[in-house]
Amino acid sequence: HLHPTELPTHIPLEKVPPLYDGHRAALSLNIIVVGAGLGGLAATYTLAHAGHRITLLESASVLGDVGAGIQVSPNATRLLHRWGLGPALAAVAVEPAAIVFRRYDTGTRVGYTRWGARMAHEHGSPYYHVHRADYHAMLLRLARAAPGVRIRLGAAVRDVQPDPAVVGGPSVTLASGEVLRADVIVGADGVKSTLQKAVTGRNDAPVPTGDAAYRAIISTDPMLLDPELRPFVETPEMSAWMAPGRHLMAYNIRAKKEYNLVLIHPDDGSVESWTEEGSGDKMRADFADFEPRVQKLLSFVKSTLKWRLMDRKPLNTWVHPKGRLVLLGDACHPMLPYRAQGAAIAIEDAAVIGALFSYVSSISQVPALLHAYEHLRLPRATVTQESSRLNQKIFHLPDGPDQRTRDEAMRAAMGAELE
Ligand code: FAD
């Protein structure tokens, strides 16, 4: 919740709801959002509905069917429902009945937590598994339909000038040399963010985490013909196999017609990209010591995507000192996907920035509003970045005393779950 005493003054923050409530700003700002990923699209939607004119700039010339499965936890689905996406989401999502952790070599169950309807009951909204392309497409439709939105593809931002005191005011320069001016600039340009450098004043590259992911989608048709694999489809679960230095996450997407595999392993020189092809044979060799059911699943893989997992140390600030440039999503809080929260936290960012900017009535309020956004979001994103890193250690423990302690604790909790 926004607490007026903790936030900058001279804005009626006590009137601002924690989430966008349909209020429209008295002053309509000209806002540039850089990056049409999940975060940038969501921010385009919320800021447009708050009454602002948005130019969304995306370097890619085509927005297409990239990536693989993605988990959408209740903190995100709750917001997506508020934005009217409930039916569209339900149409493309699979609702997992549980999360199950297994030992890699035997497949023995070491952890189990029931999800399904309980998620909606306890967290107010469902947990979904979807294809990232479906998720992206629904946010793109939402952003496109919002009032006052202009989306420009093939518009790579090369540079940013965030100082309002410079003649012409804040601006971005595209690779083509074209200069576009704005009242506020939102950098949602992902883990390799150009705008992040302008905010921090440092030229820090994202940090390799030591891990990489193979990602593959297989048809569930052959799984349904195999009595050992059929249960993975019939009772859709979030299945995780934990191994020393590696883990595998697997779940159903697209009406259980497809099965998504994310295979985390030590990075051996991949790149950070949604579209880099990996070698299926190398992937099978890297996971050859996993239980026989995994070998069967991997035998169905025809092609894989390979992705180097990068993050950054939490930033001290997301707002440029001149108060007109702000970061959102992976641009400011890239994290390992080991809590499945990267996009979910970006969706939350978008909800909060839209809510705050629905109450702006003077340009002089912008720096304080951006700091309010940072104040509300940065601690939560930082905790999530750090706990995602912690899961890297927990999931990847070498076989030995720590692993046995982990498994015993998970088994004990599982016992209570199954009672
Ligand atoms: P991005 O999606 O990276 O979008 C940035 C956009 O900016 C891109 O379209 C890019 O082309 C554009 N861009 C970049 N530079 C420029 C420029 N200079 N000018 C113009 N445009 C530019 N999150 C979850 O919530 N749940 C999960 O289950 C989950 N699983 C994951 C699994 C893996 C293997 C990985 C790698 C990530 C996972 N994530 C998950 C994280 C999630 O994918 C990201 O956090 C999320 O996509 C970030 O969205 P974004 O909009 O901030 O950035």
Topology:
Blueprint: E1 30-34, H1 38-49, E2 53-57, E3 69-72, H2 74-82, H3 86-92, E4 98-103, E5 109-114, H4 117-123, E6 128-131, H5 132-145, E7 149-152, E8 157-161, E9 171-174, E10 179-181, E11 184-187, H6 195-200, E12 207-219, H7 221-224, H8 230-234, E13 238-243, E14 246-253, E15 258-266, E16 277-278, H9 280-286, H10 292-299, E17 304-311, E18 325-327, H11 342-357, H12 366-395, H13 401-418
Parallel strand pairs: 1-2, 1-11, 2-7, 4-13, 11-18
Antiparallel strand pairs: 3-6, 4-5, 8-9, 9-10, 12-15, 12-17, 13-14, 14-15, 16-17
Helix pairs in contact: 1-5, 1-11, 2-11, 11-12
Bound molecules: flavin-adenine dinucleotide (FAD).
Protein architecture, described:
This is FAD/NAD-P-binding domain-containing protein. One of its GO terms (molecular function) is monooxygenase activity. The protein is α/β, with parallel strands linked by helices. Helices cover 34% and strands 24% of the residues. Helix 11 (342-357) packs antiparallel against helix 12 (366-395). It is globular and about 65 Å long. Residues 1-10 have low confidence and may be disordered. The structure holds flavin-adenine dinucleotide (FAD). Flavin-adenine dinucleotide binds at residues 34-40, 57-60, 70-71, 156-157, 188-190, 194, 213, 215, 262, 307, 309, 329-331, 337, 340-344, 346. Residues 34-40, 57-60, 70-71, 156-157, 188-190, 194, 213, 215, 262, 307, 309, 329-331, 337, 340-344, 346 line the site of flavin-adenine dinucleotide.
